[in-house]
Write a structure and sequence with these properties.
The chain has one domain: Vaccinia Virus protein VP39 (Rossmann fold, 3-Layer(aba) Sandwich). It has 8 helices and 7 strands; from the N terminus they run ααβαβαβαβαβααββ. 46% of the residues lie in helices and 22% in strands. It has a 7-stranded mixed beta sheet with strand order 3-2-1-4-5-7-6, sandwiched between helices.
């Protein structure tokens, strides 16, 4: 990956270190609670036979589950080299390698190389980007029908937790920071692109939403 800023390099180092553990945990335990909510919304929108783009795909567990439930193909993008290695390995193990394609790097740099998809998923990715507007505009430009995302809720405790985590990473010398972006502002950006909200679910920390065009 050609990192364009310390944030990208920091994210690569941090999430690559977590990749193997994350992959094993998801394979053992299955979808997290917030992901189960996101999946319900996607099933309501419909994705059988669809091409899926997952931005910030991690080890690929979420889009592989979509493939098992009827999606046709999946393309994953992630900043962390370790996450992409794990995603490819798990896809081979699951017998899904022929239906998965991966890119390692910053989606803002790679968007022009990614084919448009009927369904785009950003699960806990908006909070990893300092410029959420640019990320969403790039994602919307590659989405033809459904956009699904999970991001932090607008609650004092959530905003405080993100601030504390960012301060801890700064003290540890990491170039990566988590970011809080107003869900209301994110919703306005998506709706301005011609999408309407179909589904919403939440946990204590996370808000999952699915939009359709």
């Amino acid at each position: 990956m050609s990192c364009c800023c310390p944030h990208d390099a920091g994210a690569d180092r941090l999430f690559s270190r977590l990749a193997r553990r994350s992959g094993r945990r998801l394979e053992r335990r299955g979808l997290e609670r917030s992901q189960r909510g996101l999946m319900r919304g996607l099933e309501e929108a419909g994705f059988r036979g669809a091409r899926v783009l997952e931005i910030g795909c991690g080890t690929g567990h979420f889009h592989r589950e979509m493939l098992r439930r009827g999606a046709a193909q999946a393309e994953g993008v992630d900043l962390a080299a370790g996450m992409i290695r794990e995603a490819r390995a798990h896809a081979r193990t699951a017998g899904l390698a022929g239906r998965c394609r991966y890119h390692q790097g910053d989606f803002l740099e790679l968007a022009d190389r990614v084919s448009p998809a009927e369904v785009c998923v950003l699960d806990k990715v908006v909070c990893c980007y300092p410029d959420a507007h640019a990320l969403l505009q790039a994602a919307l430009g590659r989405t033809t029908r459904v956009l699904a995302l999970t991001l932090p809720r607008d609650r004092f405790a959530v905003r405080a937790a993100i601030a504390v985590a960012g301060a801890g990473m700064r003290l540890a010398g990491s170039g990566f920071r988590p970011w809080f972006h107003s869900p209301a502002r994110v919703r306005a950006w998506i709706e301005a692109a011609g999408f309407r909200r179909l589904f919403e679910a939440s946990t204590t920390f996370w808000l999952s939403e699915v939009y359709v065009r």
